[in-house]
Write a structure and sequence with these properties.
The complex is a heterodimer of chains A (255) and B (350). Chain A is built from ten helices and ten strands. Chain A is of the alpha/beta class. In chain A, helix 7 packs parallel to helix 8. Chain B is mainly α and 350 residues long. Chain B is 68% helix and 3% strand. Chain B contains 14 helices and three strands. Chain B has a three-stranded antiparallel sheet, with helices on one face. In chain B, helix 11 packs across helix 12. Chain B is globular, with a radius of gyration of 22 Å. Classes of the chains: A alpha/beta (255), B mainly alpha (350). The interface between A and B is large, with 44 and 37 residues.
């Protein structure tokens, strides 16, 4: 069974069909890319998968269970996590606390035990602390753990978003343009980072990206969207030579 | 553990100071009590406005609910309470404790009722809705005769035949009655007991993994929701907790003045509390406490120049906002303390 199955999904905003009859599947421990020109509906697909929008038609299944009609926080509880195209870190929280927020959904203690603070509470806080430190260490962010998240350099902010998403212990991680605004060196680092995440955490990753170096470098399978329609699907080499894809990206070759 | 210890020692300190309260000048004593009540109000609103980022202008409404319910209970049901606890110091204090909690709970329930539908709104819209709510409460009280309507409430006549009324009836004067006025139950101990409780409560709530959820809701709702946080639950629970303590403050206020008037809870009261939160720095516990103290004392200091008092007060607010728009303590968030190693690093790197 596929981890994620997107079945005939259509999203309309009024008269605008943003995603049209999109089909896709993601297997366990697979790295899938979604590419396409601006406005092709890539982020809309992410928003439907994470529950921000409910698709007008079609169904989205995670391990056979429909995700439609669930709220984003419930979808996150089922094991899907994401990063954002424009970085959305919590601006008043430190690096550590940005990651800490992801642990809230699985907390054993709640509102009242924060006040009484029984032994169990302290123990759980300690475990979470250790987990955060561990994660930050994997991603080389431990030196700046007490700084504000938004005071980090741009590349590290992107990294922190990935760490924060991973801290929710997802089965599926959605990365929305992780290389946006990065310089070439950072992009190379990102490539290795994404591969590392996939291997170390044994999760599936779906990646939206414009940068072909990143996409071709890491993705095992690629979907191409244009005007909400899927125009191609396949291995990176197939996509690279697909005339339809070239046309979508570079325009018509003949006049 | 450390916070528990601080909390307990604070309560002991409050108790000890209370033993000497009779030697404090009554004028200063009054100001001291008002400072305490304002700290409770401002810190509880800080949880809603500062930490959770939901701009509420309805705090006076919650205060009114708690205050009126408490003074009505402690007078209408005085025979009942004194029957259980006895008509002595102990009985009075127990009665007071019960009505404070009841007032707080009533305000909390009101917070739930107002919060669930209106917290779907954001920013200005939420502010207007909560403002409307507190005005509705005030107008409602203004028309409730059992608690004195627009004349205010100071106590109840309980006749021997069981009739209760807020006025002595001429036609009933041959029936013996007792007047149960609102007692001056509020003292230094009670006020600062609750000040300690709320500061302990908010400090512990925010400084926990769970409590960081409130800040994440303020910073970015979309991201918080994507990280598995039920933002509605956090917003409503902040609203309910804030309302509870506003109700408590109302109960303390009513039992200090021994009288409540609907005009005590008008729009200006809500604004006053919001100003304390903003001036102190949204989301800073010490900042808001200091702002509550300063803004309670300031009008008193300016009494000497009575005609110009409100002008100077407003000017000072404007100047403070211009020079420190982030509030007194806005920049140094107690939650993101810089560690020593960071400072050293900052020194090395130009």
């Amino acid at each position: 069974m596929s981890l994620l199955e997107i079945k005939n999904v259509t999203m309309r905003f009024g008269g605008l069909t943003c995603v049209d009859c999109f089909n896709a599947h993601v297997e366990p421990n697979e790295l899938v890319g979604i590419i396409g020109p601006n406005g092709a509906g890539k982020t809309t697909v992410f928003n439907m998968v994470t529950g921000v929008y409910d698709p007008t038609e079609g169904d989205i299944l995670l391990e056979g269970k429909s995700l439609v009609q669930y709220k984003p926080y419930e979808v996150s509880g089922m094991g899907i996590s994401r990063t954002f195209q424009n970085i959305r870190l919590f601006k008043s929280l430190s690096v550590k606390d940005n990651v800490r927020v992801s642990f809230i959904k699985n907390l054993d203690h709640g509102y009242f035990s924060t006040l009484i603070r029984p032994g169990k509470f302290t123990a759980e806080e300690k475990t979470i602390d250790d987990k955060i430190e561990g994660l930050l260490e994997i991603f080389d962010l431990q030196d700046s753990k007490n700084e504000l998240g938004i005071s980090l350099p741009y590349g590290d902010q992107r990294k922190l978003e990935i760490v924060r998403a991973l801290a929710t212990s997802p089965k599926l991680l959605l990365l929305d343009e992780p290389a946006a605004g990065m310089n070439p060196t950072e992009k190379v680092e990102l490539n290795t980072l994404i591969k590392k995440v996939k291997d170390k955490f044994k999760i599936s990753i779906v990646l939206i990206e414009h940068d072909m170096k990143v996409v071709m470098g890491v993705c095992e399978r690629i979907y191409v969207l244009e005007y909400g329609k899927k125009i191609a699907e396949g291995l990176p080499e197939e996509i690279r030579n697909n005339p339809k894809v070239i046309e979508a990206y570079l325009g018509d070759t003949h006049n | 553990m450390k916070s528990k210890l601080t909390f307990l020692s604070a309560i002991v300190l409050v108790y000890v100071i209370n033993l000497f309260s009779s030697s404090i000048d009554p004028y200063f004593y009054t100001i001291l009590i008002y400072i305490g009540i304002n700290i409770i109000l401002a810190t509880s609103l800080n949880l809603i406005n500062g930490f959770t980022g939901q701009f509420s202008l309805g705090h006076a409404g919650f205060m009114a609910i708690g205050g009126y319910l408490a003074i009505a209970m402690s007078t209408y049901w005085a025979p009942f309470f004194y029957g259980i606890f006895g008509d002595n110091d102990f009985g009075h204090n127990m009665t007071f404790f019960c009505v404070i909690i009841a007032g707080g709970l009533a305000a909390a329930i009101a917070g739930l009722i107002v919060g669930v539908p209106s917290l779907r709104l954001k920013g200005d819209y939420l502010a207007i809705t909560t403002l409307g709510f507190s005005e509705i409460i005030r107008v409602f009280i203004q028309n409730m005769n059992v608690i004195g309507a627009s004349q205010g409430y100071r106590g109840v006549y309980i006749y021997q035949n069981g009739l209760r009324d807020i006025q002595a009836h001429d036609e009933l004067t041959n029936i013996p009655f007792t007047f149960y006025g609102v007692q001056k139950f509020t003292n230094f101990f009670w006020v600062f007991l609750f000040v300690s409780i709320i500061v302990y409560f908010i400090y512990n709530l925010i400084n926990s993994t769970y409590g960081r959820g409130f800040l994440s809701v303020k910073d970015d709702e979309v991201a918080a929701e994507s990280m598995g946080i039920n933002t509605t639950k956090f917003k409503v629970s902040a609203f309910i907790s804030g309302a509870f303590f506003a109700g408590v403050a109302g109960a303390l206020y009513g039992h200090f003045n021994q009288y409540l008037n609907p005009e005590d809870f008008n729009f200006l009261r809500s604004v006053e509390i919001v100003v304390m939160v903003i001036l102190g720095g949204m989301g800073s516990i010490p900042g808001v406490i200091i702002a509550a103290v300063v803004l309670t004392i300031l009008p008193e200091l300016l009494r000497g120049v009575s005609e110009y008092r409100m002008i100077i007060y407003s000017l000072l607010l404007i100047i403070m906002m211009l020079t420190r728009p982030q509030g007194l303590f806005g920049i140094r968030n107690p939650l993101t303390k810089k560690t020593k190693s960071n400072k050293v690093k900052a020194d090395i790197e130009p």
